[in-house]
Amino acid sequence: MAIQLADPKSRRRAVAALFLGLAAAALVYVVASRWMGSILALEPAETRGALASALRWMTAGLSVLVVAFGAYLFAFGRKIVRFERFPPPGAAVIKDTEVLEGSRARKRDMLIQVVSALLIVTALALPWVAFQVAARIA
Length: 138
Known about the structure:
Elements: E1 3-4, H1 8-40, H2 44-83, E2 85-86, E3 97-98, E4 100-101, H3 103-137
Antiparallel strand pairs: 1-3, 2-4
Helix pairs in contact: 1-2, 2-3
């Protein structure tokens, strides 16, 4: 059983990405809160259209991020299939990881491919649902 050792540089990058993601989420929350506050201050006749627009924009923005992550997972899974190894060669890991080969790697790939497909399909369907709801609101 082979073990791929953790890459300290990748671990630092992962922690930095986590903190950047949290900071970005906090910024989005502040901006969205102010935006929603300004919408709620509108006249009732204008509020519905503005809320529908906010729903469309927020859903579209979130969906783009989720589709991008799903596409990354799909590409990562394709590397696993090509090399029949998890983690694939050249992939940095943030903790010591057992190397899976052959059928065990393909099983891991299958899980990754299913998750990526579910993320992409859901992220593409969500804006359609949001636009349907927004059309009924406006």
